User: Fold these one by one.
Assistant:
Number 1:
Amino acid sequence: MRSGCGVKQLVYVALAVLTVVAGVLVYGLLHRPERVAPPPPLVVEKCDEAKRPLPPLRPELTAARLEVLPGSVPVKIDGAHPGATLRSGLHIIEAGDAKLQVRVEPFAEVVVEATAIGDATLLLVFGARCATCARPEAELDLKFNARAIGSVDALVRALGRGDWATAVQQMRSVPPDDRETPHVRRMFAAVYLLSGQPVVAREWIDGLPKGDVLRAALTAMDVREEKVGDRQLATASDRWNAVSERYQRLSDAFANDAGPQMTELSKKFNGYSDRFLAATTAKSTVECELVLHEATEAVEAAVASLRAMKTDCAWQKRVWSAL
């Protein structure tokens, strides 16, 4: 009888334990924390307007005049057939296997000639400087060296990629008697152009026969360069209007958000306006250009200040739309 009671007690104990365990499991199920979905990834909107350079103001008014001399090698500029003008800034000029990146200044006079020499193309660009070429640290040594090794094709190909340093080494192999030929004179001119010495380059071209097409073109370019001041003065009022209109758009758009900056800009423009009127009345090209430069820089500084005020895209787009 005692053993039966003991078994019953064990059963009761087991049932009690199971009841407690079941209660704990139920409690855990009822009170376990809900799974929280992870937050969506933060999408950062790209503000291209914050990094874009300012759009130029009436670039056609300051465009360079371009003359591409006729030849057997067609010339392309920025992948297209060239026109009569070239806007200031960076451009890619290609002809045959030659390719140069050049920087063109406002109101420049640019003359381009592409000549086939052997299997390569000699590309000459007067009035614009090579934008990727190194500058010499010392005077170029182009003296003839009987022990130097070079070839015309290698020389011209080096010039075609703007590598004037390699071209210099090649040109030391050119005998003195050959240096008076039109092609070699052009090669020497190319070396000096690429190394940033246009005056010396011009001396080599001036030694060509008077009937040479490149020499004649550069002589005509000299005449046009003497009249650049007239071109600047003729477009000064239109360029001033473009600058002042951009200033006015910025002032109207941000008078409430950037009052102090706009007030300061307005004070500057009152002074610029008086100076510009006096300069145009006196037909002073130098003063007109100086005022236009200062006014443009003041507007660019104001734009930079506005861009720095807020980084969100809505603000950046608002600044851009006022330009």
Number 2:
Amino acid sequence: MPTQLSVFMKKQTIACLIFLSTIANLSFGQQTTELEKRALSPSQLFIKHQGQYEAFKSLVIRFEVAWQEADAQSMVDLKEVLGKMVAEYNGLSYPTAEIEGKLLERAAQKAQVFAELKKLPISTDDTALGPKVEQILERFNQYMRLFETDILEHQKAIGL
């Protein structure tokens, strides 16, 4: 039978281990918020945008796979995530003034695509899912082309 002292020591050891394991996470969290506050160079911003595009593209591919597998719940979830990404990406900033006018033109086009996407809700109970999904995929692909063009313009502007 354990004594009160051994139980107390076990509790202290466990509490100490939990505390020590959270220190690394707290430190990393502070570092990432400091990095977010720091202004990115044009090439760092380009790499960030390129990564965002690749993440978006991979989710669109997953959306297509869910459609092929007739997984309506995954399509609903992925459409929601992709819609949030589109809303976030519409606010991306690019550091070069040269491409600002072209970006503004495409920003209006991207906003229009996003508005059309919002008008195409899907649910697991939807009986006419096929035609809606085709329209949604068309809009996602249209948005990807606009996003890709932004990235290419950004790449040219910074000389990569």
Number 3:
Amino acid sequence: MTNNGFTKGTKVLSRDGKQEGALTGGRRRCQLAGCNGIRVVVRWADNKVTYPCTKGLEPHGEALRIA
């Protein structure tokens, strides 16, 4: 994986590991004060979209998991 694992199509697991989504390739700077992370766009199986910060994602095999 390139770009530290944050490439389009990378699988993302929910915090409890029961739901799976994928990165869409969209990104924007995190607006949280003092955070230098990037908000990545995740589309989930139910078609909802969320924007987790890269600082809150951890590697989980070939996927990422929300910490």
